[in-house]
Amino acid sequence: MTSLDAVTAWVEKYRKAWESNDPHDIRELFADDAAYFTAPYAKPWIGREAIVSGWLARQDRPHSIGFAWHPLIVTEEMSVIEASTSYPRRRFRNLWVLRLDLTCQARQFTEWWMQEPSE
């Protein structure tokens, strides 16, 4: 059963992996056969090792990101998370759909991100 505590723990681990880009940290987030959708209509990365490879191919520099989030919906089947990501010269709004398994690893993760217009 997915709870707010499980979602919070997963997002904290995601943030750690985002900062470290350590393959072990990334692997811990996802089930063996997980699907990671990087954008609407994009072909997903399927499987833990494909996710690690895809992540590392487009990794961010450690400690270069500001991040804030809050859950919009948390049910037994899925969670929807709204977030904002700040880089030195740009900001993004994010919407995540997260489906955790019984071990609190993601079996499916979808992210939508939109760059905020510059003022």
Search tags:
single chain, 119 residues, alpha+beta, 6-stranded mixed sheet, 3 helices
**Which class do the helix and strand fractions yield?**
alpha+beta
| Biggest β-sheet: strands ordered side by side in the sheet | 2-1-6-5-4-3
List low-confidence stretches. Answer: none
Our measurement of the CA-to-CA distance between the termini, rounded to an integer number of angstroms, reads: 43 Å
Q: Please give the radius of gyration in angstroms.
A: 14 Å
The profile of the biggest β sheet is: 6 strands, mixed
Q: How much β-strand is present in the residues? A: 35-45%
- Would you report the number of β strands? 6
Amount of helix? 25-40%
Structure explained in plain terms:
The chain has helices spanning 4-20, 23-29, 48-57, and strands at residues 30-37, 45-46, 66-74, 79-86, 91-100, 106-115. Helix content is 29%, strand content 39%. Strand 3 and strand 4 (79-86) form a beta hairpin. Helix 1 runs antiparallel to helix 2. It is of the alpha+beta class and 119 residues long. 19% of the residues are buried. The protein has a six-stranded mixed beta sheet with strand order 2-1-6-5-4-3. It is globular. The mean pLDDT is 93.
